[in-house]
Amino acid sequence: MVGKVVISGPASWNRIVLLEHLPEPVPHMQFALGDHETVGGTSAGKALGLAALGREVELFTLTGPDADGDRLRDVLGRVPGLGLHAIDGGRTERHLNLMTPIGERVSLYLSTPDDRPTRDDARLVAEMETAAAIVLDLSERSRRMIPDARASGRPIWTDVHDYDGTAEFHRPFLDAAEAIFMNADRIGGDPLPFMRHRIDEGARLVVCTLGAEGAVAVVALEGGGMSEHRVGAVPVEVLDTNGAGDAFMAAVLHATLDGAGIDAALELGAQQAAAVLATPHLHPSLDKLLEPDASMAE
Q: Deepest of 11, 152, 201, 254, by most Cβ within 10 A of its Cβ?
């Protein structure tokens, strides 16, 4: 296998609190069903997914000189095949995620790193120029690096998550990307008109995940026009929904770089997403790293 993937975007240290239902907006007391701490961040999720599939990956992310940053760097630094470039952001991104058993989530950002141009920018530019593909996840730093990514001539992939079709922050990512991933949470009842519009605007692949209904993709055809493809979700007992979309995109990217057709790539994406849904962590590869004594406890 050849071809590394360079990723720019967030990694975080998260506390996950499982609740029977999300809190009502009134003062009250509520008992948690459980809680744990783990790695978070959409770019960390994609990097873990690619590394688990055997793909060389270089992750550029901001962390801070604090205890949570130490834990985050320690865990990600021990993942085989994942090259971690931890850039000093003054503080580590931290989330408190309130989750329900059916996947509802409220993410509270407890801290965010500072982003400013540094000497690490040149290192990221050099890595992008030799990459098989570049993933630019939503962040101020990734947005600043879009001109350099485009100048590299390498294919750019992006994930706009629950984009509503109007937010201006996402526009440069959409305009630069060859492949766009998203979910249908805020785009409206039917994501296909927006997806077809992005193909008309120059994207070659647009994929929208649909939760339990799987995913739909629109692909640009060589001679003009476009085709629609669907994949069903793989049945699984859901433990935690964090990271499923990242695993899906990572698998589609990996399969595409290996020359797979879109249907086979989507199938691999669905399989990898299901594996993530069955773990309390961002990816199953973290199970042993974060819970080294779990097998003994059993």
A: 11
